[in-house]
Recover the amino acids of this structure.
């Protein structure tokens, strides 16, 4: 069966991040992490075979960042009826607010990376719902996952997991057996569904 693993990811490193205006960080990080995932899924989801598995790489930071949002934004992101179009508008609003310098006053967390990962996690839930509605019986499962804090160029040498350990959850989701019904539309970390 098809396996699609979405890994478009970037974060500004600590020292250069201080030199780059937050609005610019928000725009570039959103374009890579959220919009890149969205565009890849738009191109590839329509051609998936039955029983395909889609794994979007998110982060546990998405949940921490969600907890730092205003109660109104938290409720919006947790709303099961939120559409992809509405989510895209929200991600655009965050970038605009970040560029204006008033994102925290508007209820957003002070993290571009974390906000993009909120977007990827919620997008995964929405796309899973759409697949269930538009391709019932095809057995396609789509999830977001957190590989953990993995030693990469982005996370650095002090991260707690090696690449092999970081691959465990994405591979687990990609290899869910035919006939599996879940997880679907979830955030999975250490092979465990996380409460959102």
């Amino acid at each position: 069966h098809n396996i699609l693993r979405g890994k478009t990811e970037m974060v500004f490193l600590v020292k250069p991040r201080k030199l780059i205006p937050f609005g610019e960080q928000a725009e570039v990080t959103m374009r890579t992490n959220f919009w890149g995932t969205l565009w890849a899924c738009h191109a590839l989801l329509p051609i998936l075979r039955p029983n395909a598995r889609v794994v979007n790489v998110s982060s546990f930071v998405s949940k921490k960042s969600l907890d730092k949002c205003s109660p109104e934004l938290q409720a919006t992101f947790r709303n099961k009826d939120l559409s992809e179009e509405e989510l895209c508008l929200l991600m655009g609003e965050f970038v605009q607010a970040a560029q204006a310098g008033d994102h925290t006053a508007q209820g957003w967390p002070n993290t571009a990376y974390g906000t993009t990962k909120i977007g990827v996690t919620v997008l995964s839930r929405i796309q899973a719902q759409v697949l269930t509605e538009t391709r019932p019986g095809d057995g396609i499962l789509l999830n977001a996952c957190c590989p953990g804090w993995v030693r990469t160029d982005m996370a650095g040498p002090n991260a707690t997991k090696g690449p092999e350990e970081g691959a465990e959850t994405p591979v687990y989701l990609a290899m869910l057996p035919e006939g599996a019904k879940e997880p679907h539309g979830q955030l999975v970390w250490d092979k465990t569904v996380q409460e959102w």
Summary: The longest strand covers residues 141-146. Residues 3-193 form a domain with the Rossmann fold fold (CATH 3.40.50.720). The chain has one domain: 3-193. The CA atoms of residues 10 and 28 lie 9 Å apart.
